[in-house]
Each structure stands twice: as C-alpha cells, then as structure tokens.
Specification:
Elements (H helix, E strand, L loop, with lengths): L22 H21 L8 E7 L8 E7 L37 H21 L10 H28 L1 H10 L24 H22 L5 H39 L7 H5 L6 H17 L7 H9 L20 E8 L2 E8 L4 H26 L34 H11 L3 H10 L30 E2 L4
Bound molecules: benzoyl coenzyme A (BYC) and fe (iii) ion (2 copies).
Length: about 475
Amino acid sequence: MTEAWEVSYDTQIPNNIGLSSDRRVLKALEKWHPGYIDWWKGSGPDGFLEDLVYLRTAISVDPKGWAKFDYVKMPEYRWGILLAPQVEGRVIPCGQHYGELAWQEVPGEYRSLMRRLIVIQGDTEPASVEQQRYLGKTAPSLYDMRNLFQVNVEEGRHLWAMVYLLQKYFGADGREEANELLKRQSGSEEKPRMLGAFNEETPDWLSFFMFTYFTDRDGKMQLEALAQSGFDPLSRTCRFMLTEEAHHMFVGETGVGRTIQRTCEAMNAAGITDPNDINAVRSLGVIDLPTIQKKLNLHYTLSLDLFGREVSTNAANAFNAGIKGRYQEPKIDDDHMLTDATYPVAEFTDGKIMVKDVPALTAINMRLRDDYTNDAAGGVKRWNAIIKKHGIDFELNLPHEGFHRKIGVFEGAPITPGGLVLSPEEWAAKRDEWLPSKADGDFIQSLMVTVREPGEYAGWIAPPRVGIDNKPGDFEYVQIYDA
Ligand code: BYC
Ligand code: FE
Ligand code: FE
C-alpha cells in the first residue's frame, strides 16, 4: 500500500492530501468547520445528536478496504478530505485540450465555469441532508435509521470535498462560496438550494428510498462526468465520492425492493390478486403497487430535470474546455472532441414529439441523461422480478421523458407516462392517477411509525436479507440515548 492511499488523522480533519503542511488551506477549513457543525445541528438530522450510530468512516482511499465501522455520535463524525490517488501522467480525456497533461491548478480562462460547477455540485450535498432532516423520527427500523444517517454523514463529507476545492483553488471568492453553501436552505423562499429537485420535500421513507435510488443516481452520473475533468483535483475527489455513492443507491434499491416485497407477501397472505384493488391492499397496512409507481414517476422525473436542457451551450462549453466529460469517456470510441458527430434529441413542436439529430457537442446533457436512464432501468427490472416471483400481475415502468418535466424540451408539456400528448385540461384531470396525491401522501404518512426494537421492522417493509458489516439480524445499529 502506498502512502497516498492512507488517511492521516494528524489534524482535526482526516485527509490524504497532506493538509498538515498546507497551513493556508488548513486554516481556512478550520475556520469553516464551526459553521458546518452549527449547520449540522440546525439543519441535519433532527434529534439524535447524542445517540451512538454504527457508521463507517474512511481510513484509506483504497477501494478494497477503505472503511472502518464503529459507534459514533454524528456531530463527532470525522468528516475528511479524501481524494483518489493521483495518476502519474493523466491526460485530459476530451475537448480541445484532448491528450494534454491534466491541470493541477485551475486554468484562468475556465475559472468561473469551473467554480460554478463545483458550487452546484456542493450545493446539492447539504440540500439532501436538509430534505431528510425529519426522517430519523419515523425510521421503520434501527437498520434503516443507521443507513439514513450513513447517507447523511457522507453527503456532509461530499460538501467538505467541494469546500476544499473552493478554498484551495479559488481564493477569496472560493471562501465566500464556501460560506454561502451553509446559508442556502432546501425549500427556502428567500435562499433556496440551486437545483429544482433539491427544494422538494422528502416527506416519508418511500420518498427517501426513491430519492436515493433516482436522485443519488443523478449524483453518480454527474460525478462520473466530473471524474473525467481535466482539472485533476476535481477528478480525484469525484472518484472517491463515487465509492460512497454506491451505498446510497444500494439503500434506495433495496429499500424500494423491500417495500415491494412486503406488499406482495401481504397480498398473497390475504389472497388479494388484483394489485389495483387499492383499498383492499391498503387495509393490510402496506403500500399498494400503483402508489409505488406514482412515487417512482415523481422521483424519476424530478431527477431527469437535474440533467439540465437537452441542448445546452453550457454543457458544450464544459466538454470542449475539458472540464466535464461523458460517462466513461475513455471507453467511448470516437475523437473525444465531437467535431462532426451528431446525437438524437427529441423535439416537441405543435403538439408533436419528433426526434432530430443535433450536433453531439450541444447534446452532452442528453447523452448523460440517456446513460442515466439505462442505469436506472436495471433496478426497475429487479423490482419487477420480485413482483413476478410472488405471482402478481403488475409491472413498474420508467415514464416517458416528456412526462411531468420542468426543464428542457418538454417543460410543462401535457404528456402521459406512456408518451401520449393530451390537452392541458385532460392532463390536469388525470394528474392524480400518475403522481402522488394528497390522499396518497396521507396514507403513506399513516404507515410511518417508528420501530426501535433491534431486529424489528415496521409492517410495510420487509427486513433486509443481510446486515450492514455482516451484523446479525438483531444488531443494535443505533443506540438511542434516553434522557
Ligand atoms: N434546476 O444550459 P442548461 C448529487 C439552469 S446530484 C434549476 O441546460 P447546464 C446528489 C442552469 O443552471 C448532482 N435550474 O444547464 C444527489 C442554467 O442556468 P444559467 C449534482 C436548472 O449547465 C443526491 C439554465 O437552467 N451535480 O450530487 O447545461 C443527494 C440553462 O440550463 C436546472 C451536478 O449537477 C435545474 N434542475 O446543466 C446528494 C453537476 N437545470 O447558466 C447529492 C454540476 C438547469 O442560464 N452541474 N438549470 O444561469 C452541472 O453540470 C450543470 O449545472 C447541470 C445543468 C447539469 C445541473
Ligand atoms: Fe453526494
Ligand atoms: Fe449520495
């Protein structure tokens, strides 16, 4: 093992970047730290500040063994600055600087574009923690509560990751941006978070699971694209963040899967064969499959909006500059400059959906979104396999790209999940068949009871197949302190 893999604990901030000998940045981070802790206490998980949570902490950035598990009080979690080790001779994988040595400093001409992307990335991290602030109180088990808090502390660490870049490479305005990241608030009227989906509510645990499945997966795709950056410190940061992201999506996929499984088991036990008999299914205290589809529709479409416009000069500029690449850029077999290439993008004119080829350079967002859709489809297939295994005739589907969109070609278009174009009035009349209604929300809320007995689970969700860190079923993942 080389030194670059190891995390040093010789400063208050664990790191593998030699922070103890970088006094300027260490001082800036130490100055920012108390504000972060205040933010955590005021906007992070509500309550639970004194409780011992069985969390993993990074002790190395070696993908094979980076984590140590232990009981920690969340405000005492060691949020660190962890970068994947530098690759000797790494070159810029795309755009007009293709093949040149990656930058170790920010090139002056790209400074503001780079800062904007880092700030947007940074802004989503605390936003998600804010959105999930109240969920601990209705956790369906200690296992799920622990997973929520694990995701929360890691999103907190992702904020640290971006703040480090701002403070090390962007001087006074970087420090200013770092402070602003603690001031914006998810859902605030005056100072909202930057991107749409991060100002929505995460009101219940099914939303949490859908969010970590669909929205954290946008995080994965954006991090994959930024991991291609010619700005090497950004690339290295994102590469380590991706190893954490995998767990967030695992929490989402298995959470939805366990919800589906419990519903199917309860239906079978009660002899209910019609999945659309919503009242009968709900009377069993489980979430009916059509409502799960509605939640999926909501979170998937909110997440599609996070990719920006299908055709975007911002995205073209970032690619051309070598600041943001495509998903798995080095594996793509082309010139990596997109000089003459085209890419198909849907258009919506006069109530008709048509696909046209546009210059691929301008369709970078669309391409990443397509890669995202492919990636997201995998879990949906596995959810359907659970339904099928229980002999129930129902299939979950990803809705059409034009359904319920607020950004891009289909902004506000009255399109159904199946891709049919309606009149705005027809669409509005059917909205509650496709998206969660107030009544659906109230029903799900009624199931959100807290279960804190080790090894026990709320009635609407099945237990996981295996524990975290191979712990047995009745392991006490959170030791709740009773005052
Ligand atoms: N909401 O040219 P366009 C994660 C703005 S999630 C509000 O298409 P671009 C995580 C846009 O800013 C990953 N506004 O934009 C997940 C632009 O404004 P200006 C987060 C939006 O730049 C779960 C204008 O509309 N990381 O990590 O091509 C838990 C025109 O749009 C939205 C990133 O996003 C929106 N949804 O693409 C925790 C990576 N979309 O310039 C964490 C960094 C667009 O006209 N960000 N606008 O004022 C980017 O790469 C790009 O900024 C975007 C937008 C892909 C987001
Ligand atoms: Fe994150
Ligand atoms: Fe995440």
